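Hey, can you fold this?
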Amino acid sequence: MAEQPLFRRVALIGIGLIGSSMALAMRRHGLAGEIVCAARSEATRATALRLGLVDAAHATAAEAAKGADLIVLATPIGAFGRIAEEIGPVVEAGAIVTDVGSVKAMVLREVGPHLPLNVHLVPGHPVAGTEHSGPEAGFAELFENRWCILTPPEDGDAAALDKVSRLWAAMGAKVEVMTAQHHDLVLAITSHVPHLIAYNIVGTASDLETVTQSEVIKYSAGGFRDFTRIAASDPTMWRDIFLNNREAVLEMLGRFVEDLTALQRAIRWGEGDTLFDLFTRTRAIRRSIVDAGQETPAADFGRRVPGSAE
Protein backbone atom coordinates (compact mmCIF):
# COMPACT_ATOMS: atom_id res chain seq x y z
CA MET A 1 0.00 0.00 0.00
CA ALA A 2 1.34 3.45 -0.95
CA GLU A 3 2.25 5.70 1.93
CA GLN A 4 -0.27 8.44 2.65
CA PRO A 5 0.94 11.98 1.93
CA LEU A 6 1.73 14.17 4.92
CA PHE A 7 -1.11 16.55 4.01
CA ARG A 8 -4.35 15.82 2.19
CA ARG A 9 -4.82 19.30 0.65
CA VAL A 10 -2.31 22.17 0.76
CA ALA A 11 -3.40 25.72 -0.03
CA LEU A 12 -0.62 28.10 -1.05
CA ILE A 13 -1.79 31.67 -0.61
CA GLY A 14 0.64 33.28 -3.04
CA ILE A 15 2.63 31.42 -5.66
CA GLY A 16 5.88 33.36 -6.06
CA LEU A 17 9.40 32.02 -5.65
CA ILE A 18 8.83 30.35 -2.27
CA GLY A 19 5.30 29.14 -2.95
CA SER A 20 6.18 27.65 -6.33
CA SER A 21 9.33 26.03 -4.92
CA MET A 22 7.26 24.48 -2.13
CA ALA A 23 4.78 23.15 -4.68
CA LEU A 24 7.55 21.56 -6.73
CA ALA A 25 9.27 20.10 -3.66
CA MET A 26 6.01 18.71 -2.25
CA ARG A 27 5.18 17.10 -5.59
CA ARG A 28 8.65 15.60 -5.91
CA HIS A 29 8.49 14.03 -2.45
CA GLY A 30 4.80 13.09 -2.44
CA LEU A 31 3.96 15.29 0.55
CA ALA A 32 0.52 16.51 -0.54
CA GLY A 33 -2.47 14.73 -2.02
CA GLU A 34 -3.67 17.97 -3.65
CA ILE A 35 -2.08 21.39 -4.03
CA VAL A 36 -4.08 24.53 -4.75
CA CYS A 37 -3.15 28.19 -4.75
CA ALA A 38 -4.63 31.65 -4.53
CA ALA A 39 -3.36 34.56 -6.60
CA ARG A 40 -5.04 37.84 -7.46
CA SER A 41 -3.61 37.98 -10.99
CA GLU A 42 -5.31 35.85 -13.64
CA ALA A 43 -1.99 35.61 -15.48
CA THR A 44 -0.28 34.26 -12.37
CA ARG A 45 -3.01 31.66 -11.85
CA ALA A 46 -2.71 30.59 -15.49
CA THR A 47 1.06 30.28 -15.18
CA ALA A 48 0.79 28.16 -12.02
CA LEU A 49 -1.59 25.79 -13.80
CA ARG A 50 0.49 25.68 -16.99
CA LEU A 51 3.63 24.79 -15.04
CA GLY A 52 1.79 22.04 -13.17
CA LEU A 53 2.53 23.66 -9.82
CA VAL A 54 -1.03 23.28 -8.58
CA ASP A 55 -4.17 21.26 -9.25
CA ALA A 56 -6.41 24.33 -9.02
CA ALA A 57 -5.88 28.08 -8.83
CA HIS A 58 -8.32 30.43 -7.11
CA ALA A 59 -8.80 34.19 -7.15
CA THR A 60 -9.35 34.47 -3.39
CA ALA A 61 -7.62 33.08 -0.32
CA ALA A 62 -10.93 31.90 1.13
CA GLU A 63 -11.67 29.74 -1.91
CA ALA A 64 -8.25 28.12 -1.75
CA ALA A 65 -8.39 27.58 2.02
CA LYS A 66 -11.68 25.66 2.02
CA GLY A 67 -11.04 22.02 2.83
CA ALA A 68 -7.28 22.45 3.24
CA ASP A 69 -5.49 20.82 6.16
CA LEU A 70 -2.40 23.01 5.55
CA ILE A 71 -2.58 26.67 4.55
CA VAL A 72 0.68 28.45 3.71
CA LEU A 73 0.77 32.24 3.63
CA ALA A 74 3.35 33.01 0.92
CA THR A 75 2.49 36.59 -0.02
CA PRO A 76 4.35 39.71 1.12
CA ILE A 77 3.85 39.89 4.88
CA GLY A 78 1.95 43.17 4.73
CA ALA A 79 -1.05 41.21 3.41
CA PHE A 80 -1.04 38.57 6.17
CA GLY A 81 -3.56 40.25 8.46
CA ARG A 82 -6.09 40.77 5.68
CA ILE A 83 -5.67 37.19 4.45
CA ALA A 84 -6.06 35.74 7.95
CA GLU A 85 -9.26 37.71 8.42
CA GLU A 86 -10.53 36.37 5.08
CA ILE A 87 -9.74 32.70 5.66
CA GLY A 88 -10.66 32.60 9.39
CA PRO A 89 -14.35 31.77 8.84
CA VAL A 90 -13.66 28.92 6.36
CA VAL A 91 -10.62 27.12 7.85
CA GLU A 92 -11.40 23.55 8.91
CA ALA A 93 -11.06 22.51 12.54
CA GLY A 94 -7.66 20.95 13.13
CA ALA A 95 -6.07 22.61 10.10
CA ILE A 96 -2.58 24.13 10.30
CA VAL A 97 -1.78 27.66 9.16
CA THR A 98 1.87 28.48 8.54
CA ASP A 99 3.78 31.08 6.56
CA VAL A 100 7.14 31.74 4.91
CA GLY A 101 7.66 35.36 5.93
CA SER A 102 10.92 36.90 7.11
CA VAL A 103 9.39 38.53 10.21
CA LYS A 104 7.74 36.37 12.84
CA ALA A 105 6.45 38.41 15.80
CA MET A 106 4.03 40.20 13.47
CA VAL A 107 2.61 36.83 12.33
CA LEU A 108 1.59 35.99 15.89
CA ARG A 109 0.19 39.50 16.26
CA GLU A 110 -1.56 39.89 12.87
CA VAL A 111 -2.62 36.34 12.00
CA GLY A 112 -3.30 34.55 15.29
CA PRO A 113 -6.30 36.64 16.46
CA HIS A 114 -8.23 35.91 13.24
CA LEU A 115 -7.96 32.11 13.47
CA PRO A 116 -10.45 29.89 15.35
CA LEU A 117 -9.15 28.27 18.55
CA ASN A 118 -9.24 24.83 16.92
CA VAL A 119 -6.87 25.91 14.12
CA HIS A 120 -3.13 25.62 14.76
CA LEU A 121 -0.72 28.45 13.88
CA VAL A 122 2.93 27.49 13.22
CA PRO A 123 4.84 30.51 11.85
CA GLY A 124 7.82 29.57 9.70
CA HIS A 125 10.67 31.12 7.76
CA PRO A 126 12.70 29.17 5.19
CA VAL A 127 16.04 31.00 5.06
CA ALA A 128 16.41 30.49 1.34
CA GLY A 129 15.75 32.47 -1.80
CA THR A 130 17.09 34.21 -4.85
CA GLU A 131 16.63 37.71 -6.28
CA HIS A 132 14.03 36.33 -8.70
CA SER A 133 10.28 36.29 -8.11
CA GLY A 134 7.10 34.87 -9.58
CA PRO A 135 5.84 31.31 -10.17
CA GLU A 136 8.39 30.64 -12.91
CA ALA A 137 11.28 31.35 -10.52
CA GLY A 138 10.65 28.31 -8.31
CA PHE A 139 12.73 25.13 -8.19
CA ALA A 140 12.34 22.05 -6.01
CA GLU A 141 15.90 22.17 -4.65
CA LEU A 142 15.61 25.67 -3.16
CA PHE A 143 15.33 24.45 0.44
CA GLU A 144 17.92 21.68 0.35
CA ASN A 145 20.56 22.10 3.08
CA ARG A 146 19.01 25.44 4.10
CA TRP A 147 17.53 26.31 7.45
CA CYS A 148 13.84 26.70 8.14
CA ILE A 149 13.07 28.47 11.42
CA LEU A 150 9.75 27.74 13.14
CA THR A 151 8.44 30.10 15.83
CA PRO A 152 5.34 28.56 17.42
CA PRO A 153 3.34 30.48 20.05
CA GLU A 154 3.94 29.49 23.67
CA ASP A 155 0.68 27.56 23.83
CA GLY A 156 1.07 26.09 20.33
CA ASP A 157 0.05 22.53 19.46
CA ALA A 158 3.02 20.14 19.64
CA ALA A 159 1.61 17.77 17.02
CA ALA A 160 1.12 20.61 14.53
CA LEU A 161 4.68 21.82 15.11
CA ASP A 162 5.98 18.28 14.54
CA LYS A 163 4.02 17.95 11.30
CA VAL A 164 5.30 21.25 9.88
CA SER A 165 8.83 20.27 10.94
CA ARG A 166 8.51 16.99 9.06
CA LEU A 167 7.27 18.83 5.97
CA TRP A 168 10.32 21.09 5.83
CA ALA A 169 12.71 18.24 6.60
CA ALA A 170 11.18 16.20 3.78
CA MET A 171 11.79 19.13 1.41
CA GLY A 172 15.48 19.06 2.35
CA ALA A 173 15.64 21.79 4.99
CA LYS A 174 17.24 21.75 8.42
CA VAL A 175 14.70 22.84 11.04
CA GLU A 176 15.30 25.09 14.04
CA VAL A 177 12.71 26.20 16.61
CA MET A 178 13.00 29.51 18.49
CA THR A 179 10.86 32.35 19.76
CA ALA A 180 9.51 34.87 17.28
CA GLN A 181 11.27 37.74 19.03
CA HIS A 182 14.66 36.05 18.90
CA HIS A 183 14.16 35.16 15.24
CA ASP A 184 13.45 38.78 14.35
CA LEU A 185 16.59 39.98 16.10
CA VAL A 186 18.79 37.35 14.44
CA LEU A 187 17.37 38.00 10.98
CA ALA A 188 17.69 41.76 11.41
CA ILE A 189 21.49 41.43 11.41
CA THR A 190 21.90 38.43 9.08
CA SER A 191 19.41 39.48 6.41
CA HIS A 192 17.42 42.68 6.89
CA VAL A 193 20.20 45.19 7.59
CA PRO A 194 22.44 43.72 4.83
CA HIS A 195 19.58 44.22 2.38
CA LEU A 196 19.09 47.77 3.60
CA ILE A 197 22.81 48.47 3.10
CA ALA A 198 22.66 46.98 -0.40
CA TYR A 199 19.64 49.06 -1.37
CA ASN A 200 21.34 52.16 0.00
CA ILE A 201 24.76 51.76 -1.63
CA VAL A 202 23.24 50.95 -5.03
CA GLY A 203 21.00 53.99 -4.66
CA THR A 204 24.02 56.13 -3.70
CA ALA A 205 25.89 54.97 -6.80
CA SER A 206 22.95 55.82 -9.03
CA ASP A 207 22.72 59.32 -7.49
CA LEU A 208 26.39 60.27 -7.89
CA GLU A 209 26.75 63.25 -10.22
CA THR A 210 30.52 62.83 -10.66
CA VAL A 211 30.23 59.19 -11.81
CA THR A 212 27.87 58.39 -14.65
CA GLN A 213 25.44 55.48 -14.47
CA SER A 214 27.14 53.88 -17.48
CA GLU A 215 30.45 53.93 -15.60
CA VAL A 216 28.84 52.34 -12.54
CA ILE A 217 27.56 49.51 -14.74
CA LYS A 218 30.70 49.19 -16.87
CA TYR A 219 33.26 49.13 -14.08
CA SER A 220 31.32 47.26 -11.40
CA ALA A 221 33.70 45.18 -9.30
CA GLY A 222 32.64 41.95 -7.63
CA GLY A 223 31.53 43.63 -4.41
CA PHE A 224 29.19 46.07 -6.14
CA ARG A 225 27.77 43.29 -8.34
CA ASP A 226 26.92 41.34 -5.19
CA PHE A 227 25.16 44.41 -3.79
CA THR A 228 23.12 44.84 -6.98
CA ARG A 229 22.03 41.18 -6.82
CA ILE A 230 20.70 41.71 -3.29
CA ALA A 231 19.17 45.07 -4.23
CA ALA A 232 17.27 43.38 -7.07
CA SER A 233 15.03 41.59 -4.55
CA ASP A 234 11.28 42.13 -4.57
CA PRO A 235 10.51 45.75 -3.48
CA THR A 236 7.07 44.99 -2.00
CA MET A 237 8.39 42.14 0.13
CA TRP A 238 11.27 44.18 1.51
CA ARG A 239 9.17 47.27 2.17
CA ASP A 240 6.88 45.10 4.31
CA ILE A 241 9.81 43.46 6.12
CA PHE A 242 11.30 46.77 7.22
CA LEU A 243 7.95 48.19 8.31
CA ASN A 244 7.11 45.07 10.33
CA ASN A 245 10.51 44.45 11.95
CA ARG A 246 11.38 48.08 12.58
CA GLU A 247 12.42 47.71 16.26
CA ALA A 248 14.98 44.96 15.63
CA VAL A 249 16.22 46.57 12.40
CA LEU A 250 16.69 49.95 14.06
CA GLU A 251 18.55 48.33 16.97
CA MET A 252 20.95 46.49 14.64
CA LEU A 253 21.26 49.51 12.35
CA GLY A 254 22.27 51.66 15.31
CA ARG A 255 25.01 49.18 16.22
CA PHE A 256 26.15 49.11 12.58
CA VAL A 257 26.36 52.91 12.41
CA GLU A 258 28.49 52.95 15.58
CA ASP A 259 30.88 50.38 14.12
CA LEU A 260 30.97 52.23 10.79
CA THR A 261 31.93 55.43 12.60
CA ALA A 262 34.82 53.60 14.29
CA LEU A 263 35.93 52.26 10.91
CA GLN A 264 35.76 55.74 9.42
CA ARG A 265 37.98 57.01 12.23
CA ALA A 266 40.50 54.19 11.67
CA ILE A 267 40.78 55.09 7.98
CA ARG A 268 41.11 58.82 8.71
CA TRP A 269 43.91 58.30 11.24
CA GLY A 270 45.70 55.57 9.33
CA GLU A 271 45.08 52.86 11.95
CA GLY A 272 46.20 49.95 9.78
CA ASP A 273 46.23 47.40 12.61
CA THR A 274 42.58 48.15 13.40
CA LEU A 275 41.59 47.61 9.76
CA PHE A 276 43.67 44.45 9.45
CA ASP A 277 42.17 42.93 12.61
CA LEU A 278 38.62 43.64 11.43
CA PHE A 279 39.23 42.19 7.97
CA THR A 280 40.81 39.09 9.50
CA ARG A 281 37.79 38.49 11.74
CA THR A 282 35.29 38.99 8.92
CA ARG A 283 37.24 36.69 6.60
CA ALA A 284 36.91 33.95 9.22
CA ILE A 285 33.11 34.41 9.22
CA ARG A 286 33.03 33.87 5.46
CA ARG A 287 35.05 30.67 5.81
CA SER A 288 32.73 29.44 8.54
CA ILE A 289 29.70 29.95 6.28
CA VAL A 290 31.37 27.96 3.50
CA ASP A 291 32.42 25.22 5.94
CA ALA A 292 28.81 25.01 7.20
CA GLY A 293 27.62 24.24 3.66
CA GLN A 294 25.64 27.47 3.34
CA GLU A 295 27.68 28.79 0.40
CA THR A 296 30.08 27.65 -2.27
CA PRO A 297 33.73 28.78 -2.09
CA ALA A 298 33.66 29.55 -5.83
CA ALA A 299 34.35 33.23 -6.54
CA ASP A 300 31.90 33.59 -9.42
CA PHE A 301 30.82 37.15 -8.49
CA GLY A 302 27.54 36.74 -10.34
CA ARG A 303 29.15 35.59 -13.57
CA ARG A 304 27.57 32.15 -13.60
CA VAL A 305 24.42 32.02 -15.70
CA PRO A 306 21.39 30.84 -13.66
CA GLY A 307 20.59 27.22 -14.47
CA SER A 308 24.05 26.47 -15.81
CA ALA A 309 26.23 23.66 -14.50
CA GLU A 310 28.11 24.31 -11.29
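Oh, and this one too while you're at it.
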Amino acid sequence: MSTACLIPRGSPNALPWDCSAELSAEPSLFEPFHGTPSLRHVRRCLRKQLTWHHELERRARSAARSVAPDEDSDTPPQPAVAFPALVVVSPGRPETVLDAYRCEPVQAGVYHAVPGLVMRVVVLAELPRTRTTLMLRLLGSGRRLREALTDLAALPDDTWEKSVATPLLVHFRHGIQEPTTDEEDDVSAEIRAWFKEYEQKLRAEERKEGRDEGRAQGRAEEAARAVLTALRVRGIAVPDAARERILGEKDPEILERWHERAIVAASIADVLPDLS
Protein backbone atom coordinates (compact mmCIF):
# COMPACT_ATOMS: atom_id res chain seq x y z
CA MET A 1 0.00 0.00 0.00
CA SER A 2 1.26 3.48 -0.82
CA THR A 3 0.18 7.06 -0.27
CA ALA A 4 1.14 9.48 -3.01
CA CYS A 5 2.24 13.02 -2.23
CA LEU A 6 3.33 15.73 -4.62
CA ILE A 7 6.58 17.50 -3.77
CA PRO A 8 7.15 20.70 -5.79
CA ARG A 9 10.76 21.36 -4.86
CA GLY A 10 13.52 20.66 -2.32
CA SER A 11 13.98 22.49 0.96
CA PRO A 12 15.89 25.78 0.63
CA ASN A 13 17.64 25.05 3.90
CA ALA A 14 18.80 21.56 3.03
CA LEU A 15 22.29 20.38 3.85
CA PRO A 16 24.80 19.63 1.06
CA TRP A 17 23.44 16.62 -0.81
CA ASP A 18 20.39 16.25 1.35
CA CYS A 19 18.82 13.03 0.06
CA SER A 20 15.19 14.16 0.31
CA ALA A 21 15.97 17.58 -1.16
CA GLU A 22 17.88 16.04 -4.07
CA LEU A 23 14.95 13.76 -4.90
CA SER A 24 12.46 16.64 -4.74
CA ALA A 25 14.59 19.17 -6.62
CA GLU A 26 12.20 18.70 -9.55
CA PRO A 27 8.40 18.30 -9.51
CA SER A 28 7.96 14.82 -8.04
CA LEU A 29 5.32 12.28 -7.11
CA PHE A 30 6.35 10.41 -3.95
CA GLU A 31 4.93 6.91 -3.37
CA PRO A 32 5.96 5.54 0.06
CA PHE A 33 5.10 1.86 0.63
CA HIS A 34 4.56 0.10 3.97
CA GLY A 35 5.81 -3.16 2.49
CA THR A 36 8.29 -3.86 -0.30
CA PRO A 37 6.37 -3.19 -3.54
CA SER A 38 5.99 -5.70 -6.35
CA LEU A 39 6.15 -4.96 -10.06
CA ARG A 40 2.35 -4.72 -10.13
CA HIS A 41 2.38 -2.06 -7.39
CA VAL A 42 4.94 0.05 -9.21
CA ARG A 43 3.02 -0.20 -12.49
CA ARG A 44 0.08 1.41 -10.70
CA CYS A 45 2.38 4.22 -9.62
CA LEU A 46 3.54 4.70 -13.20
CA ARG A 47 -0.08 5.05 -14.27
CA LYS A 48 -0.51 7.80 -11.68
CA GLN A 49 2.62 9.51 -12.98
CA LEU A 50 1.28 9.55 -16.55
CA THR A 51 -2.18 10.66 -15.40
CA TRP A 52 -0.72 13.52 -13.39
CA HIS A 53 1.38 14.67 -16.34
CA HIS A 54 -1.74 14.63 -18.52
CA GLU A 55 -3.54 16.76 -15.91
CA LEU A 56 -0.65 19.24 -15.77
CA GLU A 57 -0.78 19.59 -19.57
CA ARG A 58 -4.54 20.14 -19.46
CA ARG A 59 -4.17 22.88 -16.84
CA ALA A 60 -1.39 24.53 -18.83
CA ARG A 61 -3.53 24.58 -22.00
CA SER A 62 -6.46 26.02 -20.06
CA ALA A 63 -4.27 28.74 -18.57
CA ALA A 64 -2.83 29.58 -22.00
CA ARG A 65 -6.31 29.93 -23.48
CA SER A 66 -7.40 32.26 -20.69
CA VAL A 67 -4.42 34.52 -21.44
CA ALA A 68 -4.98 34.47 -25.23
CA PRO A 69 -8.69 33.71 -25.72
CA ASP A 70 -8.68 34.91 -29.37
CA GLU A 71 -6.35 32.13 -30.51
CA ASP A 72 -7.73 29.66 -33.06
CA SER A 73 -9.47 26.96 -31.05
CA ASP A 74 -8.55 24.32 -33.67
CA THR A 75 -4.87 24.79 -32.86
CA PRO A 76 -4.77 25.15 -29.08
CA PRO A 77 -1.44 26.18 -27.56
CA GLN A 78 0.68 23.38 -26.17
CA PRO A 79 2.87 24.84 -23.39
CA ALA A 80 5.88 22.83 -22.33
CA VAL A 81 5.17 20.98 -19.09
CA ALA A 82 7.92 19.25 -17.11
CA PHE A 83 7.33 15.52 -16.75
CA PRO A 84 7.00 14.81 -13.00
CA ALA A 85 9.47 12.37 -11.50
CA LEU A 86 8.19 9.30 -9.67
CA VAL A 87 9.92 8.47 -6.37
CA VAL A 88 9.08 5.00 -5.04
CA VAL A 89 10.00 4.64 -1.36
CA SER A 90 10.36 1.01 -0.31
CA PRO A 91 11.27 -0.40 3.14
CA GLY A 92 13.10 -3.36 1.57
CA ARG A 93 14.90 -4.03 -1.70
CA PRO A 94 12.36 -4.59 -4.54
CA GLU A 95 14.46 -6.88 -6.70
CA THR A 96 11.86 -7.45 -9.44
CA VAL A 97 11.32 -3.69 -9.80
CA LEU A 98 15.03 -2.88 -9.92
CA ASP A 99 15.61 -5.59 -12.54
CA ALA A 100 12.56 -4.82 -14.70
CA TYR A 101 13.35 -1.12 -15.03
CA ARG A 102 17.15 -1.51 -15.12
CA CYS A 103 17.62 0.67 -12.06
CA GLU A 104 21.19 1.74 -11.34
CA PRO A 105 22.48 2.91 -7.92
CA VAL A 106 23.36 6.62 -7.72
CA GLN A 107 23.79 6.82 -3.94
CA ALA A 108 23.55 4.28 -1.14
CA GLY A 109 19.90 3.22 -1.13
CA VAL A 110 18.90 5.41 -4.11
CA TYR A 111 18.38 3.99 -7.62
CA HIS A 112 17.48 5.59 -10.96
CA ALA A 113 15.47 3.72 -13.58
CA VAL A 114 16.07 4.08 -17.31
CA PRO A 115 15.94 7.82 -18.17
CA GLY A 116 12.66 7.71 -20.09
CA LEU A 117 10.69 6.67 -17.00
CA VAL A 118 11.98 9.47 -14.74
CA MET A 119 11.61 7.05 -11.81
CA ARG A 120 13.68 6.85 -8.63
CA VAL A 121 13.60 3.98 -6.15
CA VAL A 122 14.61 4.59 -2.52
CA VAL A 123 15.36 1.52 -0.38
CA LEU A 124 15.07 2.63 3.24
CA ALA A 125 16.94 -0.45 4.51
CA GLU A 126 20.01 0.61 2.50
CA LEU A 127 20.09 4.29 3.43
CA PRO A 128 23.00 5.26 5.70
CA ARG A 129 22.04 6.57 9.11
CA THR A 130 23.00 10.19 8.48
CA ARG A 131 21.29 13.53 8.80
CA THR A 132 21.01 13.85 5.01
CA THR A 133 18.74 10.77 4.88
CA LEU A 134 16.73 11.55 8.03
CA MET A 135 13.56 12.87 6.38
CA LEU A 136 13.31 9.76 4.21
CA ARG A 137 14.05 7.37 7.08
CA LEU A 138 11.11 8.88 8.98
CA LEU A 139 8.89 7.17 6.38
CA GLY A 140 10.03 3.79 7.65
CA SER A 141 8.69 1.59 10.43
CA GLY A 142 9.92 -0.54 13.30
CA ARG A 143 13.59 -0.24 14.21
CA ARG A 144 14.42 2.11 11.35
CA LEU A 145 11.66 4.51 12.34
CA ARG A 146 12.76 4.43 15.97
CA GLU A 147 16.33 5.22 14.92
CA ALA A 148 15.12 8.10 12.77
CA LEU A 149 12.98 9.47 15.61
CA THR A 150 15.93 9.26 17.96
CA ASP A 151 18.10 11.13 15.45
CA LEU A 152 15.40 13.78 14.99
CA ALA A 153 15.00 14.26 18.74
CA ALA A 154 18.76 14.77 19.07
CA LEU A 155 18.79 17.73 16.66
CA PRO A 156 18.66 21.30 17.99
CA ASP A 157 15.15 22.76 18.23
CA ASP A 158 15.79 25.38 15.54
CA THR A 159 16.76 22.93 12.77
CA TRP A 160 14.55 22.84 9.67
CA GLU A 161 14.05 19.08 9.97
CA LYS A 162 12.39 19.47 13.37
CA SER A 163 10.23 22.39 12.28
CA VAL A 164 8.92 20.38 9.31
CA ALA A 165 8.72 16.83 10.66
CA THR A 166 7.76 17.14 14.31
CA PRO A 167 4.27 18.63 13.91
CA LEU A 168 3.42 16.04 11.25
CA LEU A 169 4.71 13.15 13.34
CA VAL A 170 2.78 14.28 16.40
CA HIS A 171 -0.38 14.74 14.33
CA PHE A 172 -0.31 11.44 12.43
CA ARG A 173 1.23 9.16 15.06
CA HIS A 174 -0.47 10.47 18.19
CA GLY A 175 -1.98 7.61 20.14
CA ILE A 176 -0.32 4.89 18.03
CA GLN A 177 1.26 2.29 20.27
CA GLU A 178 3.47 -0.33 18.66
CA PRO A 179 4.59 -3.39 20.63
CA THR A 180 8.23 -3.22 21.59
CA THR A 181 10.81 -5.73 22.70
CA ASP A 182 12.83 -5.31 25.88
CA GLU A 183 15.83 -3.80 24.12
CA GLU A 184 13.57 -1.19 22.51
CA ASP A 185 11.93 -0.01 25.73
CA ASP A 186 14.51 2.67 26.53
CA VAL A 187 14.38 4.19 23.06
CA SER A 188 10.59 4.03 22.91
CA ALA A 189 10.30 5.68 26.32
CA GLU A 190 12.65 8.45 25.20
CA ILE A 191 10.61 9.06 22.05
CA ARG A 192 7.31 9.10 23.96
CA ALA A 193 8.77 11.58 26.42
CA TRP A 194 9.94 13.76 23.54
CA PHE A 195 6.48 13.67 21.92
CA LYS A 196 4.84 14.49 25.24
CA GLU A 197 7.17 17.46 25.78
CA TYR A 198 6.43 18.76 22.27
CA GLU A 199 2.66 18.37 22.73
CA GLN A 200 2.85 20.24 26.04
CA LYS A 201 4.71 23.03 24.27
CA LEU A 202 2.02 23.19 21.58
CA ARG A 203 -0.76 23.31 24.17
CA ALA A 204 1.02 26.10 26.07
CA GLU A 205 1.35 28.12 22.87
CA GLU A 206 -2.34 27.56 22.06
CA ARG A 207 -3.36 28.69 25.55
CA LYS A 208 -1.23 31.82 25.23
CA GLU A 209 -2.72 32.61 21.82
CA GLY A 210 -6.20 32.11 23.26
CA ARG A 211 -5.49 34.46 26.17
CA ASP A 212 -4.01 37.09 23.87
CA GLU A 213 -6.99 36.83 21.52
CA GLY A 214 -9.41 37.09 24.46
CA ARG A 215 -7.66 40.18 25.81
CA ALA A 216 -7.71 41.83 22.37
CA GLN A 217 -11.41 41.04 21.94
CA GLY A 218 -12.23 42.40 25.39
CA ARG A 219 -10.26 45.56 24.69
CA ALA A 220 -12.10 46.05 21.38
CA GLU A 221 -15.52 45.59 23.00
CA GLU A 222 -14.65 48.09 25.72
CA ALA A 223 -13.39 50.62 23.16
CA ALA A 224 -16.57 50.22 21.06
CA ARG A 225 -18.76 50.89 24.08
CA ALA A 226 -16.68 54.01 24.83
CA VAL A 227 -17.28 55.34 21.29
CA LEU A 228 -21.06 54.82 21.58
CA THR A 229 -21.10 56.39 25.05
CA ALA A 230 -19.27 59.48 23.81
CA LEU A 231 -21.74 59.85 20.93
CA ARG A 232 -24.69 59.49 23.28
CA VAL A 233 -23.31 62.12 25.64
CA ARG A 234 -22.86 64.46 22.66
CA GLY A 235 -26.50 63.86 21.70
CA ILE A 236 -25.54 62.47 18.30
CA ALA A 237 -27.90 59.99 16.68
CA VAL A 238 -26.21 56.75 15.64
CA PRO A 239 -27.77 54.98 12.61
CA ASP A 240 -27.95 51.22 12.66
CA ALA A 241 -25.23 50.94 10.00
CA ALA A 242 -22.86 53.06 12.07
CA ARG A 243 -23.64 51.11 15.25
CA GLU A 244 -22.95 47.81 13.50
CA ARG A 245 -19.72 49.23 12.10
CA ILE A 246 -18.52 50.35 15.53
CA LEU A 247 -19.50 47.15 17.33
CA GLY A 248 -18.04 45.00 14.55
CA GLU A 249 -14.62 46.68 14.54
CA LYS A 250 -11.98 44.41 16.13
CA ASP A 251 -8.97 46.72 16.03
CA PRO A 252 -8.75 48.58 19.38
CA GLU A 253 -6.48 51.25 17.89
CA ILE A 254 -9.07 52.20 15.24
CA LEU A 255 -11.77 52.31 17.91
CA GLU A 256 -9.63 54.56 20.07
CA ARG A 257 -9.24 56.99 17.14
CA TRP A 258 -13.01 56.97 16.65
CA HIS A 259 -13.44 57.63 20.37
CA GLU A 260 -11.19 60.68 20.16
CA ARG A 261 -13.28 62.00 17.26
CA ALA A 262 -16.56 61.24 19.06
CA ILE A 263 -15.58 63.39 22.04
CA VAL A 264 -15.60 66.56 19.87
CA ALA A 265 -17.89 65.44 17.01
CA ALA A 266 -20.94 67.40 15.85
CA SER A 267 -22.34 64.48 13.82
CA ILE A 268 -21.73 60.83 13.10
CA ALA A 269 -20.00 61.93 9.88
CA ASP A 270 -17.21 63.45 11.97
CA VAL A 271 -16.49 60.02 13.40
CA LEU A 272 -17.19 57.81 10.37
CA PRO A 273 -16.91 60.05 7.32
CA ASP A 274 -17.14 57.14 4.89
CA LEU A 275 -20.71 56.42 6.10
CA SER A 276 -21.95 59.95 5.47
